[in-house]
Amino acid sequence: MNIVLFGPPGAGKGTQGVRLAEEKSIAAIAMGDMLRQAVAEQTPLGVQTKQFMDAGKLVPDAVVIGMIEETIVEEDASNGFLLDGFPRNVAQAESLDEMLSRHGFALDAVVFLDASEELLLERLSGRLICKACGFGFHRHYSPPREAGCCDRCGGELYQRDDDNEDVIAQRLHVYQEQTAPMLDYYAHRSSFCRVDADGGMDEVYERLINALEQMH
Ligand code: AP5
Is residue 123 one of the residues assigned to a domain? Predict the structure, then answer.
């Protein structure tokens, strides 16, 4: 099964995507994670992209499109994949369609995770991530058992550089301007569904599974 998961920052793409990919035994491909890894490793690509991410702007299309193609071809995506954070504008969506047909893949589901702006702000400002394993927590909604320490691996928890008020506002603006128009691109497809992401993590996951089941 090949899935695109898109929606505003903080809608829960990472949270739901990892769980869904595990359940379906498909590769979870998160563009933001790949870019943050490149920044942390200070690769030439990481140095080039850091300024865009820190400012809450989109990294240039040519960079992310190249990365996704490499990943889909090289990762063990034979059992399927879930794309989180790609595509993020109509040009990327068009490139994805072209790239998938060139490699003989098709999209089985395009899921739009929808949530109110108030909720997004609350989720993003409280997010904590494990430095070692990348697992996500939230100060109020899913706090770690021990403050500052990952329940899964004991790693140190940190707040993302772009999870501060100013950059969050910019990311939400970029979402409205560049990502939201993808709704028109995908909404007419039979593989499209909208899932209400306003609710507890398990509740949203159940809606997601139900939406996918109804589709197939
Ligand atoms: P990226 O890392 O993709 O960030 P984003 O889209 O802003 O999305 P987030 O990761 O912030 O949110 P999410 O929806 O995954 O929410 P999460 O599940 O973590 O991209 C970062 C940057 O990289 C971009 O700004 C851009 O610069 C660049 N980039 C990435 N892709 C690109 C592309 N294609 N083209 C160009 N540039 C690109 O949840 C958030 C918090 O809420 C967590 O703490 C979680 O525990 C909590 N939470 C989640 N769900 C619930 C729930 N149901 N109830 C309570 N709490 C919840």
Answer: no
Domain count, the chain: 1
Pocket flag, ligand 1, residue 9 (CB < 6 Å): yes
CA distances from 150 to 39, 45, 120, 146 (A): 22, 29, 23, 8
Residue-wise pLDDT for 48-100, tens only, equals 999 999 999 999 999 999 999 989 887 767 789 999 999 999 999 999 999 99
Which atom of ligand 1 is nearest the CA belonging to 35? 23
Euclidean distance between CA atoms 155 and 152, whole angstroms:
8
Find the CATH number of the domain harbouring 183.
3.40.50.300
Query: Residue 59: which domain range?
Result: 2-116+179-215
Q: Looking at the domain assignment, is residue 146 inside a domain?
A: no
Per residue in 94-118, pLDDT (tens digit) is: 999 999 999 889 999 999 999 999 9
